[in-house]
Amino acid sequence: MTPTEAKRPLQLNDNGQLRHFLSLDGLPRELLTEILDTADSFLEVGARAVKKVPLLRGKTVCNVFFENSTRTRTTFELAAKRLSADVITLNVSTSSTSKGETLTDTLRNLEAMAADMFVVRHADSGAAHFIAEHVCPDVAVINGGDGRHAHPTQGMLDMLTIRRHKGDFENLSVAIVGDILHSRVARSDMLALRTLGCRDIRVIAPRPLLPVGLEQYGVKVFNDMNEGLRDVDVVVMLRLQRERMQSGLLPSEGEFYRLYGLTTERMKLASPEAIVMHPGPINRGVEIESAVADGPHSVILNQVTYGIAIRMAVLSMSMSGQVAQRQLENEAGEQN
Ligand code: CP
């Protein structure tokens, strides 16, 4: 490892460009804005008759999802195809992982097939970071969600949705509601909102669903949904993550919905122009009423569309950051 590599954050190259996309933690506002601007330019590609640009022609993107996914996996696949990459999606449930092959061995084998990028979802927090530390130096790693830790492309597609519907972040009030404790989306959203200058970030949840250390995100915490929703411009609802929850953490789904469900009646507390977001999958009648999920305030399906553009931006920017890093290292080698 060179001294520069020792100092530089893992996900950036020596010029401060993205080379992996693992977390929004520590990424500067300029870089997040560049991702949003690049994604904005890619939205037009999705409206073309031939939805393709040649930016990743000749590159191989490998989707490796160790947890279930509908939106993230398919939109990464579409994003890579729209960039003209070759795409492999490994179905982990039918792969040799079930025969005991380790994560590292699985990835080593995919590297041997000359994969240029891995998009990884894993139940363990830190899995994407671990992989980025251990792959060949030319391979870019993109986090498609790791445990409770981070879901950075979801965070960025949420920011694109907010910016396109509500404009700049400074004067917005944004409420994030529900199962904050288990939510990697909440963590990525809070980091992105803070970095992009949002001054009123509210977190609304029952005490058992609040993690410790929320003060680092500069958020205001509300246990009363009716109080927290007052005059907000954006409501981000979260799914109750039963699969990550210890039994007895919540009394019942009915009680949760009564106190924290987003209903038509409760939406009257928010700004009249407020938007409603949800990363999906939605549990109708558990955290959100169908009339709200499908109603005039909802931009939930727009989030999915914007997700393709964000993933195109992250894939293309990370690949160019990797190529630029290789050139920098070659030039440094020639001078020595
Ligand atoms: N928002 C999200 O991550 O959805 P999937 O689990 O379907 O990918």
TrEMBL record:
Record keywords: Transmembrane included? no
Query: Which reaction is recorded as catalysed by this protein?
Result: carbamoyl phosphate + L-aspartate = N-carbamoyl-L-aspartate + phosphate + H(+)
EC number(s) for this protein?
2.1.3.2
Report domain Aspartate/ornithine carbamoyltransferase Asp/Orn-binding positions: 171-317
Q: Tell me the keywords, alphabetical order.
A: Pyrimidine biosynthesis, Transferase
Record has Cell membrane as a keyword = no
- SUPFAM superfamilies hit by this protein: Aspartate/ornithine carbamoyltransferase
Tell me the GO molecular function terms: amino acid binding; aspartate carbamoyltransferase activity
| Pathway the protein contributes to | Pyrimidine metabolism; UMP biosynthesis via de novo pathway; (S)-dihydroorotate from bicarbonate: step 2/3
Q: Which Pfam families match?
A: OTCace (PF00185), OTCace_N (PF02729)
Which residues does the record give as L-aspartate binding sites?
99, 184, 239
Q: Where does carbamoyl phosphate bind?
A: 71-72, 121, 151, 154, 280-281
One CC-aspect GO term: cytosol
What's the superkingdom here? Bacteria
**Major enzyme class:** transferase
Instruction: Kindly state a single biological-process term from the GO annotations of this entry.
Output: 'de novo' UMP biosynthetic process
Which InterPro entries does the record associate with it?
A: Asp/Orn_carbamoyltranf_P-bd (IPR006132), Asp/Orn_carbamoylTrfase (IPR006130), Asp/Orn_carbamoylTrfase_sf (IPR036901), Asp_carbamoyltransf (IPR002082), Asp_carbamoyltransf_Asp/Orn-bd (IPR006131)
What range(s) does the Aspartate/ornithine carbamoyltransferase carbamoyl-P binding domain occupy?
19-163
Query: What is this protein's function per UniProt?
Result: Catalyzes the condensation of carbamoyl phosphate and aspartate to form carbamoyl aspartate and inorganic phosphate, the committed step in the de novo pyrimidine nucleotide biosynthesis pathway.
What HAMAP family is this protein classified in?
Answer: Asp_carb_tr
PANTHER family this protein is in?
A: ASPARTATE CARBAMOYLTRANSFERASE, ORNITHINE CARBAMOYLTRANSFERASE, MITOCHONDRIAL
The Swiss-Prot or TrEMBL record describes its family as follows: Belongs to the aspartate/ornithine carbamoyltransferase superfamily. ATCase family.
Quaternary structure, from the entry: Heterododecamer (2C3:3R2) of six catalytic PyrB chains organized as two trimers (C3), and six regulatory PyrI chains organized as three dimers (R2).
What name has this protein been given in UniProt? Aspartate carbamoyltransferase
Q: Which species does the entry assign this protein to?
A: Stutzerimonas kirkiae
Q: Which gene encodes it?
A: pyrB
